[in-house]
Design a protein that fits this description.
Length: 377
């Protein structure tokens, strides 16, 4: 069997373009792709597990054996050790985590290497190491690092080695509680909004938080502010969820009296204050699906999920997006049926394309941090 693996995501596809495919995989009809993907899946049988994140486009997600948010998909990796190949229809940090959590006999594949994450790119390992050194130099100690799962394996390994943990939006509150039981302060990265919103929900004052800007000297934070801070937030964000605004919330309430507004905690603090509820992707799905018939919802998260819910629950419930332009996660969108077909037919022919391999130097401590995440509820 031949294979092409990458130990650093976007190794050859960091120009923002979709990964180029062999010409024979371009220009196929929808019917051709459906038929050929179905044949490849059937041929591979139990040797194959396709995981699909909720933000994937429908024409890809239809082939997923398991769907979910980052937390649920991480659990599926550990629960399906029989699969020889894990094809992860998501983005690079998810595939990295899957590789770390998988067994030595399993191979993790990302259909398009250009499927990255702008938030994850906002926290580089050299920046984190510099931040940590500067905090120590200022005698800021007893800190527990907590990283959102939307981060590179090197960041997760750093946290794991220093007594920290990975979290998802599903267990962020439990992770912060876990960390404060072990230290006086938390360094939370890379998404400042998830950290701020989660801590506020726990009763932590905004005055007890500071934002560390890795682009500024000393993070742009004074020693005095660091001394009193309980939560040090990394200056990072999700380019999709920060597009939602308070004015959008106000507009949808005027247009649809009685609508309930529910948003993802990667949105800004003021948007959460203007909304009725917030929570992880799985939480949003569960809340809307369990709501009474006739309910109307305006949702602040990625458009593919919102559209899917709207189609699935109509006409009993009305589901709409907060952003009339539609908030598309462009990196999730890069995984196409064409890319999925290419990697699956490669496996049928004993060729592994786009295998994701986390370097051994990072794997041990990344696994520690992820295992802690899975243990925290």
């Amino acid at each position: 069997m031949t294979s092409t693996s990458v130990s650093t995501y976007l190794e050859e596809s960091d120009n923002g373009e979709c990964q180029l495919l062999p010409e024979r995989y371009v220009g196929l009809t929808d019917r051709e792709m459906v038929d050929r993907i179905s044949v490849a899946k059937s041929t591979l049988g139990r040797r194959l597990l396709i995981l699909g994140h909720h933000y994937q486009r429908d024409e890809v997600l239809r082939f997923a054996d398991r769907t979910g948010d980052s937390f649920r998909l991480a659990r599926h990796v550990t629960d399906h050790q029989e699969a020889e190949y894990i094809v992860f229809c998501g983005v690079h940090f998810m595939a990295e985590s899957a590789d770390v959590l998988s067994s030595t006999r399993q191979r993790v594949i990302l259909p398009d290497l250009a499927a990255g994450c702008s938030m994850a790119d906002m926290a580089g390992i050299e920046q984190l190491e510099s931040c940590w050194s500067e905090l120590q130099a200022k005698s800021i100690e007893n800190i527990i690092p907590v990283t959102y799962i939307n981060s590179a394996a090197s960041i997760k390994a750093f946290c794991g080695e220093r007594g920290g943990v990975v979290c998802t939006s599903s267990n962020a509150e439990a992770a912060l509680k876990w960390a404060w039981e072990r230290g006086q302060k938390i360094l939370f990265l890379p998404d400042q909004h998830l950290g701020r919103n989660t801590a506020c929900r726990m009763g932590v004052s905004l005055d007890d938080m500071v934002v560390w800007d890795p682009e500024l000297e000393d993070g742009g934070v004074s020693s005095g502010d660091l001394d009193v801070a309980k939560l040090i937030l990394w200056k990072g964000h999700c380019s999709v969820h920060t597009r939602f605004t308070v004015s959008q919330v106000e507009h949808v309430r005027k247009q649809h009296p009685g609508v309930r507004v529910i948003v993802h905690p990667e949105c800004t603090w003021d948007v959460l204050q203007a909304s009725d509820d917030s929570g992880s992707t799985e939480y949003i799905i569960d809340e809307i699906k369990s709501s009474p018939s006739g309910s109307a919802w305006a949702v602040g998260t990625e458009i593919h999920l919102v559209t899917r819910l709207a189609n699935e629950l109509a006409p009993e419930r009305t589901v709409m997006t907060l952003d009339p332009m539609g908030c598309l996660c462009s990196t999730m969108f890069r995984v196409s049926p064409n890319h999925l077909l290419w990697v699956l037919e490669g496996l049928v022919d004993d060729q592994v394309h786009n295998q994701i391999v986390v370097p051994a130097t990072e794997k041990r401590w990344t696994r520690v941090a992820l295992d802690r995440m899975l243990e925290i509820h």
